[in-house]
Amino acid sequence: MSTPIPARIAALRAAMQQHGVAAAIVPSADPHLSEYLPERWQARAWLSGFTGSAGTLIVSREHAGLWTDSRYFAQAEQQLAGSGIALMKLRVPHTPEHLDWLAAQLHRDEVLAVAGDSVSLAGLRAMEGRLGEHGVRVRSDLDLPGAVWHDRPALPHARIVEHPIAWACTPRADKLARLRHALRKQGATHHLLSSLDDIAWLTNLRGSDVECNPVFLAHLLVAVDGKATLFAERGKFDDALVARLAADGIVIAPYAGVADALAELGKDDALMFEPGRVVCAVSNAIPAGVQRIEAANPSTAFKAVKNPAELDRVREVMRRDGAALAGAFREIEHQLADGKPLTELDVHRLVHAARAAQPEFVGESFATIAGYQANGALPHYRATPESHSTLQAKGLLLIDSGGQYLGGTTDITRVLALGETTAEQRRDATLVLKGMIALSRARFPKGASGPQLDALARAPLWAACCDYGHGTGHGVGYFLNVHEGPQSIRPPVSGGALVALEPGMISSIEPGLYKPGRHGIRHENLAVVVEADRTEFGDFLAFETLTLCPFDRRALEPGLLGPDERAWLDDYHATVRAALSPLLEGADLAWLERHCAPL
Description:
Keywords: Aminopeptidase, Hydrolase, Metal-binding, Protease. It is built from 19 helices and 28 strands. It is α+β, with helices and mostly antiparallel strands. The strands form eight sheets. It has a six-stranded mixed sheet with strand order 4-3-2-1-5-6, sandwiched between helices. Strand 3, helix 3 and strand 4 (86-89) form a beta-alpha-beta unit. Helix 14 (308-337) packs across helix 19. The chain is globular, with a radius of gyration of 25 Å.
């Protein structure tokens, strides 16, 4: 029988008392600081019952609080009910950030504990800096959640496979040579990587240790003038793959051996690593005499810019993905028209089955969000067997889904009108589309960043005194994580880095509008940055829309669209029809023709 949440919190407090700890902080993190975590490192979810992907739990002697952002407020309120854990809403008036709250609550000489394998070196420094002002001591050598989580899952054991060169497009030897060139320019003799997508991209390897993300647990230590050591369990590789890796200068060592390897570095070595992407439990193993070069991982910028061969693969994947969704959406409409009972779980099943029938499909890029009516107002809603809605032939259905293919990663959101809609719903859907069109049509100077463009998507909503609480766009990997840096399109953050958008970067464009208890709207396409023009004012860039799937015009109010916006939508639908028609037939083709007709 599962232990109730209050009993888990009580066990954590008992462990805190045993070690003289006044408060414990439990981030959403693993030793690779991943967004989505293997079950073994879902301690925050186990302790709190809150399953959202972003959140920080803090437990003191008298208080327990869960800090999360507006995407998860409704979900957190529901999942924390009766737990004794308070929801602490991030970025709303009168709610302190968690470090500010700790600074106000803890006293001089008291101790805060955080597991060293769940906080980056940069994060630990921030804690120590903020709390040290008040004389609070931070200990990262205690894993208190692990001490009370007695049935904690084991490490994942999924196989590691090669991403075939026909889809990877660039040999790993070439990627490693490019990396070493960048390291020499920095004066480094070695480079430590813990971020799983960087490692998978550099090695042309893929795994399934993390749900929906084709990555595997590993660290990578690259010697500039020697071999690269991949710290991953040997049993995950077949012998032939180990031999091919060795031929490219990559040797396999035990996953837990990274600390010992770092400890062997000497005073003549210079280790480059990114302090925000390496946990302090690993960085603590670096000998004091080793020169540290703290800088961004070069591979993060390399993999963000897709080369022409990769983009050709992505464009073909978008055709296949769009064809799959056309079939799935048509089937949803057909079953509803026939009066068959259909739930949000059935939507997930139909979308998955349609994608699975496509060539080179590997799996979902994230768990499908199928939110009917009020559930669509929850940006990260997920239907479960215990809690889901049945569809009716009226209102709106929001479907946010994506696929992992050997030739790319997809992420798309569409809002379907299942029958009669309200004037408010059509107005809101059109306002959001106006924002998407504004950003999709933008031209901007080379060197511009996502935060500089974010307001373009919000302007039509702001004009109606509306807004949304999430970013407008995130980078997307190439058969890798659906959320990829370093670029993003979101409001400016004080002190945040401005990463220039470069040709070849793929980003989502996904404005939204959410009205709790009523409905939610989000339109999402993926787009790639391309060169647009060169003038006396310099080089200008633009977006090429990659996603190929019609918008449901029945959910729109065409009279709110200007002539240029109507032309954009008609041109987009003409492109979709031309790209997908050869892949469809019968009822699916008829559905496509109907939904791609001009306004």
